Amino acid sequence: MLPKTLFLLLFSLSTVTTLAQQQSKPNILFMMADDHAAHAVGAYGGRLAVVNPTPILDRLVAEGMRLDNVFVTNSICTPSRATLMTGQYSHVNGVTTLSGRIEPERQHLARLIKDAGYETAMIGKWHLKEEPAAFDYYAVLPGQGSYFNPILRVDGEGEWPNNAVRYAGYDSKHSSDVVTDLSLEWLKERDTSKPFFLMHHFKAPHDNFENAERYDWLYEDIEIPEPISLRFQPDFGSEATAEAGTSVSKRNTRRNMGHHMFVDQSLDSSAYTHVSYQRYMKKYLRTIKGIDDNIGRLLDHLEETGELDNTIIIYTSDQGFMLGEHDYIDKRWMYEESLRVPFIVRYPDYVATSSTSDAIINNVDFAPTLLEMAGVQKPDFMQGDSFLSIIQGERPPADWKTSTYYRYWMHMTHHDNPAHYGIRTKDFKLIFYYGLPLDAPGALEAATQPGWELYDLRTDPQELRNVYNNSDYAEVVQQLKKELLELKAEIGDTDDKYPTLMERRQQYWDM
After folding, report:
1. Starting from the edge strand earliest in sequence, which strands make up the sheet with 137-141, in order?
2. 462 Ramachandran zone, left/alpha/beta (phi>0; psi -120 to 50)
3. Which end of the chain is more exposed for a tag (fewer CB within 10 A), N or C?
């Protein structure tokens, strides 16, 4: 038996070593917006850079890395967040639509990082229905939540889901400000003997777009540039999408942005589109300015506490957003503006300043990457791969993905988008609109016309021309169809379980 004094000394050294190991790990601040399109970040360029609402995010890009080819696998809120928490595609984690949920035992990302010695918190938009009990602390919006004077379900304030606290001020208190207030409060009170993992999730800029009152006149006298495809679409789309999608203009009489923005219905088509678009974009960009300013508050706190350079800072979005491109609003589409998300990383220890990467990444890779950042090995049930080495400036591994898979399940719900799946490489995008509800909860039961679309992203990055039926692309079509089926088999999303889909595939695969 060891002498008591020696035992105490060894125990003390072991405790100090464990504490030092924990403190040597970087903090992780994972910030995510809702529906923030990459082209609405100044540093990503594009037509909106001239009215740039994101100088703070631009600063993060200048001090870190901008990833240019980051995509979601299902462009809708709940499925995207489920993929983040599980590292699995929608068909595997079971969250294919807004009706899905992730129970505490399946909140793998939070559970595994907590087990690695991190103090964890989830603050802001959660949207996964079940209590985020895998975190040490949470304060989350119920469902979509409110933009002003929001109620949040707060850990320690009672039993879920009745642990509701309203955050209000003398003036209307905006959600982005409240979420940041709560994150700052948690950061100030956290256990500093541990590194932190904070998921700070804004509700903004989800529609209906409501900005904090201090931004009411921002961009008032500025003309927001229109995308060329708002009015010019020479060969866009297919028979599957001819009547689909909610619009900026009067095209969709059931639902369009002019309805949301209370545009005078007596205006002619051109004027209506102009007014609708300008009101839409100004409100959208004002909510983003609120996000950017609040990120500045978080960075200021980290700098004041000496934690800025010891914190991996990440900013992304749960999906992109159509900002008038192709006369569309909302997300859900596999078109670029909806499919692509911003992904920005700052960490001076291993992220080079003003660096970029064009490696193809999708959000099933987020959880494995965050785990590796925390020193945790990816579990076998996660389908994604860590791209930490790419963030660190290395070339993508030889076996890194050359394409990304996408599937939207919520057939014709809310914004009239038909169900579809497809593949995107660096050069091409192939989409199959199968137009069936299958077993997606809440999907519209009526089937719609199937169709194919192919876009050559090398010559047509704005996806103005569907070249699927162009004989010059016949070999490309066949090769991409082969790759698409191989990718579906690889991730386990085959169509075999759906006889109606297999029948439709056989009928339309070679159309």
Report:
1. 164-166, 151-154, 137-141, 119-125, 196-201, 27-33, 311-317, 343-346, 65-67, 355-357
2. alpha
3. N
Q: Tokens for 452?
A: 């194919």
Sign of CA dihedral 219, 222, 223, 225: negative
For residue 234, the model assigns a pLDDT of 87
| CATH number 3.50.50.60 given to 25-508 | no
Kindly give the parts of the chain with pLDDT less than 50. Answer: 1-2, 6-22
Kind and range of the H or E run holding 293: helix 269-304
Q: How far is CA 282 from CA 54, 223, 226, 301, in A?
A: 14, 9, 12, 29
Among residues 407, 415, 457, 401, which one has the least CA distance to residue 433?
Answer: 407
Which residues, including other chains, have CB under 8 Å from residue 43's CB and lie 6 or more apart?
Answer: 54, 57, 58, 61, 62, 66, 344
pLDDT at 23: 56
Cα–Cα distance for residue pair 6/391, rounded to 1 Å: 45
| Alpha carbons 89 and 93: distance in angstroms, whole number | 6
Helix (H, G, I), strand (E, B) or coil at 472: helix
Q: Residue 177 corresponds to which tokens in the numbers above? A: 């400000």
Q: What is the DSSP pairing of strand 355-357 with strand 27-33?
A: unpaired
So what's the pLDDT on residue 171? 81
pLDDT of residue 511: 81
Longest Cα pair distance anywhere in the chain, in angstroms? 92
Query: Would you list the domain boundaries of the chain?
Result: 25-508
Closest by CA to 95, choosing from 442, 489, 331, is 442
The 3-class SS string of 185-254 reads HHHHHCCCCCCEEEEEECCCCCCCCCCCHHHCCCCCCCCCCCCHHHCCCCECCCCCCCCCCCECCCCCCC
How far apart are the C-alpha atoms of 407 and 76, rounded to whole Å? 10
Q: What is the identity of the amino acid at 381?
A: F
Backbone φ/ψ region at 505: left (φ over 0), alpha (ψ -120 to 50), beta? alpha
What integer pLDDT is reported at residue 15 of this predicted model? 41
What does the block give as tokens for 479? 């090769």
Contact by Cβ (8 Å): 327, 247: yes
**Distance in Å from the first CA to the final CA of the chain:** 80
Which pairing describes strands 70-71 and 119-125: parallel, antiparallel, or unpaired?
Answer: unpaired
CB contact at 8 A, 73 and 90:
yes
Rounded CA gap, 123 and 176, in Å? Answer: 11
pLDDT tens-place string over residues 465-498 = 999 999 999 999 999 999 999 999 999 999 999 9
Cα separation, 230 vs 269, in Å, equals 12
